[in-house]
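One example given next:
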Amino acid sequence: MTKNMAYVKSSIPRPGDGAGCAATRKSQIILVDVEDVETEPTREVGNCNVTGDLTLKAEAKAISIYATASSIQVTEELSGDPDAEGIKTGIVFDHPGNSVAIKNFIEVFKNRGVIAIVQECDGTDSGRPQIMGRVCNPLRLSLETKMDGEATKRTLTWKQALPDKFLAGEYSGKMPTVAEDATSATGGA
């Protein structure tokens, strides 16, 4: 059996000017309920480029959720014992206000796993999509709410429960169809 090696050892030079500058991201986070996934892109260790599209089941749609752009953090946490180390990927962001739509969303998704796509603003039309979570190891929600004299917001933290083999992936596939905005009839505003 031949082992497929995706990674070739090579030196890592100094990145270009500004590489350490804070990354700006689009304020719309795309979340996909893993129950809605028909097929997901494939991965291999040592290659952060994912192959293929994230496709949804018939009639299923992803959710776009507004995040305060300056609050968006992509997280990667290395953990585990020697020979069993893995990475928990995730995303943290603030959502302002106390709308019925965000409350309904949280009540439904508090026990669901998701795959998240975040787009970095890299100067291209499509941005640089980063994908986190997988059907077998999705991101799970934890929440902190603040409603006081300083702010009314929810900090949503989505993180894998188990360490995984993969960092956030470079997603070049087709973006999933996104549901329409919430209205008063669907629990919004």
Summary: The first strand starts at residue 28 and ends at 33. The chain has a mean pLDDT of 89.
